[in-house]
């Protein structure tokens, strides 16, 4: 029956959305392939019930952003493929529940911002990342690759960006710009990090308040 299903592929089906609790009965699912569809938005309950899922493939869809909590049901996930979507700016706080993730594929997107320090903090088990077409300044890209190297994270360039005929760092395309713009980028990244940290703190406070509200009054 479906309760024992380990692998499910519904790729190439022109899906535009994943309904809440769509996979609730598939608690033994190990691999889920949703690639090559037209999915643009994921519901916060789209992956409810998939606590044992190890591999999630979302390649070649129309995803551009993710709500915080999208991956909260996937604590066992080890591989996440978000390649060839329309992600330009990624709030890495969405990866907070994925502490066991070892491989992340982001190639085929066009990031103009990526907080790599928070990324490696949230994804503490990460050992391999496929990088997207970079529209990052070369200085910022160099900082990011240095962090990955220090964390022993293998970084693979996008298949379409590994060219040495234009400005690049280790075959990953980038662009140069003046110091004023670099400073602005650093400030934007710092503010993104503060915003992400505040959201984590707000979630923690909310959980504490919820626990206090559920605590028996006569035991206080």
Automatic annotation (TrEMBL):
<dbReference type="InterPro" id="IPR032675">
    <property type="entry name" value="LRR_dom_sf"/>
</dbReference>
<dbReference type="Pfam" id="PF13855">
    <property type="entry name" value="LRR_8"/>
</dbReference>
<dbReference type="InterPro" id="IPR003591">
    <property type="entry name" value="Leu-rich_rpt_typical-subtyp"/>
</dbReference>
<keyword id="KW-0732">Signal</keyword>
<dbReference type="InterPro" id="IPR001611">
    <property type="entry name" value="Leu-rich_rpt"/>
</dbReference>
<protein>
    <submittedName>
        <fullName>Uncharacterized protein</fullName>
    </submittedName>
</protein>
<feature type="coiled-coil region">
    <location>
        <begin position="184"/>
        <end position="211"/>
    </location>
</feature>
<keyword id="KW-0175">Coiled coil</keyword>
<keyword id="KW-0677">Repeat</keyword>
<dbReference type="InterPro" id="IPR050328">
    <property type="entry name" value="Dev_Immune_Receptor"/>
</dbReference>
<dbReference type="Pfam" id="PF00560">
    <property type="entry name" value="LRR_1"/>
</dbReference>
<keyword id="KW-0433">Leucine-rich repeat</keyword>
């Amino acid at each position: 029956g479906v309760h024992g299903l380990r692998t499910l592929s519904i790729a190439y089906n022109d899906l535009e959305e994943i309904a809440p609790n769509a996979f609730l009965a598939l608690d033994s699912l190990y691999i889920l392939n949703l690639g090559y569809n037209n999915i643009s938005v994921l519901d916060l309950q789209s992956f409810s019930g998939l606590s044992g899922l190890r591999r999630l493939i979302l390649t070649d869809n129309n995803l551009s952003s993710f709500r915080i909590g999208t991956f909260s049901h996937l604590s066992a996930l080890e591989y996440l493929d978000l390649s060839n979507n329309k992600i330009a700016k990624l709030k890495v706080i969405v990866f907070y529940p994925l502490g066991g993730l070892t491989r992340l594929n982001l190639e085929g997107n066009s990031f103009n911002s990526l907080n790599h320090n928070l990324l490696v903090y949230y994804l503490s088990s990460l050992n391999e990342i496929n990088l997207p077409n970079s529209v990052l300044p070369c200085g910022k890209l160099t900082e990011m690759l240095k962090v990955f190297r220090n964390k022993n994270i293998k970084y693979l360039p996008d298949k379409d960006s590994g060219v040495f005929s234009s400005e690049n760092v280790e075959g990953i395309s980038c662009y140069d710009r003046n110091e004023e713009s670099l400073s602005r980028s650093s400030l934007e990244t710092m503010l993104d990090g503060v915003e992400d940290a505040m959201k984590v703190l707000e979630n923690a406070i909310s959980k504490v308040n919820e626990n206090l509200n559920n605590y028996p009054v006569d035991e206080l």
